[in-house]
Amino acid sequence: MLKGPRWLRDAVLYQVYPQSFKDSNGDGIGDLPGITASLDYLEWLGVNVIWISPCFVSPFQDAGYDIADHYKVASRYGTNADLQRLIRAAHSRDMRVCLDLVPGHTSIEHPWFKASCRHKRNQYSDRYVWTDSGWKQAPNLDSIRGYSERNGAYIANFLYCQPAPNYGFAKPDPKHPWQQPVSAPGPMATRQELRRLMDFWLKRGIDGFRVDMASSLVKNDPDARQTSRLWREIRAWLDTQHPEAVLISEWGDPVRSLSAGFHIDYPLLGNRYYMSLLRAEPRRVLVVPPLGHSFFDRCGRGNIREFLDEYLRLLRATRGRGHISLPSSNHDMVRVSCDRNVADLKVIYTMLLTMPGVPFIYQGDEIGMRHLRNLPSKEGSLDRTGCRTPMQWDRSRNAGFSSAPARKLYLPCDPNANRPTVADQMSDPHSLLQHIRNLIALRRRVPALQADGEFRPLYARANALPFVYARILGKDRFVVALNPSAAPAAAVFPFSPGGTVETVMASGAQLDLKTGRAKIAMKGVSYGVFAVTRPAGGGKSADSSAAARPACS
Ligand code: NOJ
Q1: Helix (H, G, I), strand (E, B) or coil at 272
Q2: Distance CA 79, CA 84 (A)
Q3: Cα(68)–Cα(112) distance, rounded to whole angstroms?
Q4: CB of 104 within 8 A of CB of 217?
Q5: Spatial separation of the C-alpha atoms in residues 240 and 49, rounded to whole Å
């Protein structure tokens, strides 16, 4: 599969979690007109793609990831017409809008599921995965018994309230005749419905989908072979019918997902290389076991090779097929700001916004919103409530989320709990927000720093600092240097043919080039982005030494 539409090249994606982004009507819950009203801000920030977490009809037992009507916007967010207005307003600013697609489960309130619960057979009986007796559990899958008048247990994909539509089994077990092959009428009808649904929203102007639990569709599917085949068919259809649309997978395995036709994949909590960068300590992880020390920590005990070795392997294995994105956080993670200050975050964003792929910024991360602890589970958030609190637009009571019906708020909002605000930081030239805005502007100006520019580590030693890499495209060469540790760091590394250094953005970092080598000197917690102009008549490569290999793009 090809890499996809050109617009991905300079894309910077911003994730909107609709319930807690911007409340326009004073009911204490964010909504679509609120997002439309915030486009000025997002345009000012420089992001050009918005991914909106699910905004469809739902009983909100998993915050909207339990959909009861895929074709209709939930009334708390507005109407389908509001969504169309948002899309038009975004497009008029050259911004794209991606919706969340949740193909792996619906809500138990979905009419198709309700029909499939009936004792009497009907057209939806085989549209979900059911065992053939209420006493029988499904091997290796979560099954819920005793729910329906139908004599069977249904398969839940995530929480108990999220039954799995039937895409069939890759290897149906003859001992369990209720396991249907992917080609059976029920699974085929489910597939058709998926395409119909995608077509419905694409025809209304959306630019793509972030696909929830993209690898979970076909059951008992070793290596996700049949699930990949299904997505490849979808991609082939997309390429003919909606060639400008993109598919972003929540898969965490770019080698599989990009060959299954996705344009972008991003790491999940279980991906150690990503966790080692930002979330290795017990206080920074949810669900998965801690790993030790993050590379981005002032103690300086992290190891960049834990990230880099795997990342380089993935880049090589997916070359030319799509993008690997590195999110700042999302609505399922501990926020990147956890136990870090503005200076630390500036170093982190210098990396996240100068790497290949399409950077993802989660709402509120750009102002360093804190991860709040010990909040109750809301709408199925479990322990993820702390990263879902309302966007801190300003210091007013409830940060722009109306105070009167605050009890209806999706999440509790204490105006003092999350102090950094957009308003304060927009007017402070030294704020985190301004730093991120400057980095985005730089990235959007400089193709070498965008999705397809070559990525080449220059100095990346185990348990040593700093971390230095080059981004290269055509004649343009940029060097990025990062020192997350509180202690100063310096390094000398091969760099030929040299050239003239221009400091583009830096704090506490200095790069000097001598013939054939470079010297970087960095204060504690510092970063630098440098443009290197090739000397007249210089050689071909930015750093042709063996130490600088391998090159990846
Ligand atoms: C991943 C989503 O990001 C998460 O919020 C949700 O709870 C599960 N998938 C189930 O849909």
Answers
A1: helix
A2: 9
A3: 9
A4: yes
A5: 22
Q: Which pLDDT score is estimated for 401?
A: 63
pLDDT, residue 534, reads: 85
User: What six digits make up the tokens of 266?
Assistant: 């991003």
Question: 273 by DSSP, 3-state: which?
Answer: helix
Q: Which atom of ligand 1 is nearest to the CA of 330?
A: 3
Alpha carbon nearest to ligand 1 atom 11, residue: 65
**pLDDT tens for each residue of 85-124:** 999 999 999 999 999 999 999 999 999 999 999 999 999 9
- The CATH H-level superfamily of 6-107+188-444 is Glycosidases (3.20.20.80)
**What phi, psi does 522 have (nearest 5°)?**
-135, 135
Residue 189 has pLDDT above 90, yes or no: yes
**Across residues 235-247, what is the average pLDDT?**
97
How many A from CA of 323 to the centre of ligand 1? Answer: 21
> Is residue 212 within 6 Å of ligand 1 at its C-beta?
yes
- Tell me phi and psi for residue 467, to 5 degrees: -110, 125
The token pair at 30 is 């964010």
Tell me, using a 6 A CB cutoff, whether residue 213 lines ligand 1: yes
290: burial class by Cβ within 10 Å (0-12, 13-18, 19+)? middle
Q: For residues 159-163, give the mean pLDDT.
A: 98
The answer to whether the CB of 378 is under 6 A from ligand 1 is: no
Q: Does residue 550 carry a pLDDT above 50?
A: no
Rounded distance from Cα 243 to ligand 1 centre (Å): 27
Segment 213-237 mean pLDDT? 98
Q: If you measure from the C-alpha of residue 266 to the centroid of ligand 1, how many angstroms do you get, rounded to a whole number? A: 14
pLDDT at 408 > cutoff 60: no
C-beta of residue 277 within 8 angstroms of C-beta of residue 294: yes
**C-alpha distance from residue 457 to each of 373, 445, 520 (Å):** 37, 22, 14
Q: φ, ψ for residue 163 (rounded to 5)?
A: -65, 145
Long-range interactions of 513-520: CB distance < 8 A, separation 24+ = 517/492, 517/493, 518/458, 518/479, 518/492, 518/493, 518/494, 519/490, 519/491, 519/492, 520/459, 520/466, 520/468, 520/481, 520/490, 520/491, 520/492, 520/493
Mean pLDDT score, 198-226: 98
Q: Is pLDDT at 396 greater than 80 in this prediction? A: no
Look up the CATH number of domain 453-552.
2.60.40.1180
319-343: per-residue pLDDT in tens?
Answer: 999 999 999 999 999 999 999 999 9
Alpha-carbon torsion angle 436, 437, 439, 441, nearest 10: 160
| 212 CA → ligand 1 middle, Å | 7
- pLDDT grade for 549, boundaries at 50, 70 and 90: very low
List C-alpha distances in Å: 86 to 77, 91, 194, 263, 344: 12, 9, 24, 24, 35
> For the chain, which residues make up each domain, given as ranges?
6-107+188-444, 453-552
For 167, 288, 324, 528, 531, the CA distances from 359, given in Å and listed in that order, are 32, 23, 9, 19, 21
